User: Which sequence fits this backbone?
């Protein structure tokens, strides 16, 4: 396992800059995808396999949102950076999309995904990829020296069970710790990723 904080740090400090540069120079989308799986490790942003719940999955309380094939990357990232629900945003490994991390109530992952997807579509006309609806979906490392990490995000814990958007200072303060320090997530090496 690794932490979301380590994942974010690696994206910002260029741990995989060489591999990302190689991937982004590849014009064919299929070949780019193959290189990504071949060269990069991946994580499950939303938690750990073999966790404490009945399904064997321990949720991190963080949802990954993917916005692929974006026409204007900087505008998309800027919109996400201005959104009070987003705690982190960065350019995807392909260089053609933007990823955002959103704190949620992990007990209602799919419901939170639906609410988040509708929020981003309704607010910014951004169409989210469906893959992260599955809490075990993979997120590959990327490189973005200008990765955005919120100092304070609104909590969307209530996007799940209660169905009400809630902005709570206490959960917003906890978010900084959960996202940058303590949340453990599964880490898949490139070799393991090829077998998935």
Assistant:
């Amino acid at each position: 396992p690794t932490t979301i904080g380590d994942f974010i740090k690696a994206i910002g400090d260029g741990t995989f800059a060489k591999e990302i540069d190689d991937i982004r120079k590849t014009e064919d989308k299929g070949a780019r995808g193959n290189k990504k799986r071949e060269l990069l490790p991946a994580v499950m942003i939303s938690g750990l396999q073999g966790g404490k719940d009945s399904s064997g999955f321990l949720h991190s309380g963080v949802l990954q949102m993917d916005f692929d094939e974006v026409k204007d990357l900087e505008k998309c990232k800027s919109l996400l950076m201005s959104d009070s629900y987003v705690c982190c945003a960065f350019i995807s490994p392909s260089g053609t999309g933007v990823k955002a991390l959103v704190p949620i109530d992990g007990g209602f992952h799919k419901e939170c995904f639906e609410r988040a997807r509708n929020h981003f579509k309704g607010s910014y006309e951004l169409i989210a990829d469906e893959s992260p609806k599955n809490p075990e979906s993979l997120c590959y490392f990327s490189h973005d020296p200008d990765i955005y990490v919120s100092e304070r995000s609104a909590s969307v814990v209530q996007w799940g069970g209660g169905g009400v958007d809630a902005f709570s200072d206490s959960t917003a303060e906890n978010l900084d710790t959960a996202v940058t320090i303590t949340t453990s997530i599964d880490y898949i090496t490139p070799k393991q990723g090829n077998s998935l």
The chain has seven helices and ten strands. Helices lie at 4-13, 17-24, 29-39, 73-82, 109-124, 169-182, 190-194. The two ends are 17 Å apart (CA to CA).
